[in-house]
Specification:
- Two copies of one chain form a homodimer.
- Chain A is of the alpha/beta class.
- In chain A, 44% of the residues lie in helices and 17% in strands.
- In chain A, strands 1, 2, 3, 4, 5, 6, 7 and 8 form an eight-stranded mixed β-sheet that branches.
- In chain A, β2, α9 and β3 form a beta-alpha-beta unit.
- In chain A, α10 crosses α11.
- The longest helix of chain A is centred in the N-terminal third of the chain and has 28 residues.
- About 7% of the residues of chain A have low confidence.
Chain lengths: 332, 332
Amino acid sequence: MRRRQALVGLWIILASVSTLGVQDVRAADKPLPSWSDTATRSAIIDFVSKVTREGSASFVPVSERIATFDNDGTLWAEKPLPVELSFTLQRVKELAPQHPEWRTKQPFAGLLTGDLKAALAAGEQGIAELVVATHTGMTTEEFTHEVETWIASAKNPKTGKLNTRMVYQPMLELLDYLRANGFKVFIVSGGGVEFMRPWTEKVYGIPPEQVVGSSGKLQLEMRDGKPVLAKLPTVELIDDKAGKPVGIQERIGRRPIAAFGNSDGDLQMLQWTMSGPGPRFALLVHHDDPKREFRYDRTDKLAKLDKAWDEALAHGWTVVSMKRDWKTIFPE
Amino acid sequence: MRRRQALVGLWIILASVSTLGVQDVRAADKPLPSWSDTATRSAIIDFVSKVTREGSASFVPVSERIATFDNDGTLWAEKPLPVELSFTLQRVKELAPQHPEWRTKQPFAGLLTGDLKAALAAGEQGIAELVVATHTGMTTEEFTHEVETWIASAKNPKTGKLNTRMVYQPMLELLDYLRANGFKVFIVSGGGVEFMRPWTEKVYGIPPEQVVGSSGKLQLEMRDGKPVLAKLPTVELIDDKAGKPVGIQERIGRRPIAAFGNSDGDLQMLQWTMSGPGPRFALLVHHDDPKREFRYDRTDKLAKLDKAWDEALAHGWTVVSMKRDWKTIFPE
């Protein structure tokens, strides 16, 4: 009897250990742990299950599993101002002593005196001038070095946290989940491609060759008998709005089957993605959580979510409510 | 005694079986079987062994193992005329009824009457005109369809074999060997990117997103309520000569550690590759086997190997003699 009890006890222990083991594995394997158990999470998992189910009509071969992600506001925070604009501001300050004329010339004067409104009053034309002044006139290697040095310590002006820690934990999990299911993930961003490539691999696991962005003309030159690539002050691609499908076709050469964005700048990428044959997925991140992040949408100046939101509602695309759908926003 | 003999016999059998097994495995694993046992093959294997030896000073992490290949004359035959030129000629014939003016206008007239010399007399300007006339004015999807249809049956005018079977067996093995050793291989070709992408995955195992080539401007348009990408008659990148490092930086974003070409059009790609830090490898294919393929080098009009050859000799880059270094040229 005692022996039997002992055996039963042993079985109970073994059973709990083994259950515990199974639960552990399940917890580890449960995809998207920072996503709440809402329709949004289900929509993602349903889509991925559908395209990976071999033999089904909705199966998509691995080679066609291309997913594209906007960066600013989709993978990392873009408020109170876009990270690349902070970098640009810093560069303007560094370069100002060599450009006394900037003290009275917009958009430079505004940036130097902290009057961002005045600096951005000229709109896209002003931003283009800033980009030319700060992103060109050096070699690609010199620029990469500038970015690497800056990003290592650059912090969000509101939270004081490193920008590279202001990435969205649920989106990092989504990248992992897609990769684990055979997807090749790309960034397709309005940001400068040479600004993003130095750190995307470390921060998102996305290598330089899977980053598409705005870019300027390059020119091969010989300096001290060595070839260098000079960054010329001529725009090549504005990888935003109608430029996103162009960038995708030029640099990737296939239409994605899933696309992720957060503003009207992503609308055409989502439309391009959704208009191909077979199963497709489009998602917009809605910034509706001012407590944990920022709140902005229809009337935002730099990252308006208006027309794309209407399209999403009209076509049943997935819209993430950061407040409701994300348990955590940033990595701990 | 008998038992001992039996044991010895068993050991001999086991030993031979096991030796046989090992030999089989070795034969199957022996890299580059179509390459003769010359210094060229050794140079390739030495380089790959060096960069993959973990813990050594010459080790290169997988993410940096980028190799770029020219296409025409490096991966497939480009004689008696480049494959894309055959395609262009075919397109000119198809489109000629809509362009009566072509009958008296070069380079079209030359192509239509078979006077290739007259057609190519205008040089690059003439080729650009042909490309605009045959490669633009339709959507990317329409053009892809044209290429797919054509390539399925297009044959080399001299051998009568499918162009897609006029690929170099030793180079297919080299692609496999590099991939098996953690390399990501890219095509970086002067040919049109939209001309290559429809078939490179099937023929070389190189997906569209790893193909860099010459390209024209694209424009997003809505047709019947659906987004399409129109191919505009404006050149964006001539991915040849000094354009190759530009294409590499723009589309890949890292400097390769190994590059493979066959003409002066590849010189700058090889220089760019070799001028980075750490172990590097550059290889030129020399077409010196008129019996099995074609013979051309210093004085060829379309694919001259002259300056790049001198550079290779001066710097000790690897030069393949197709005659001496390749046991077979084409797949059986």
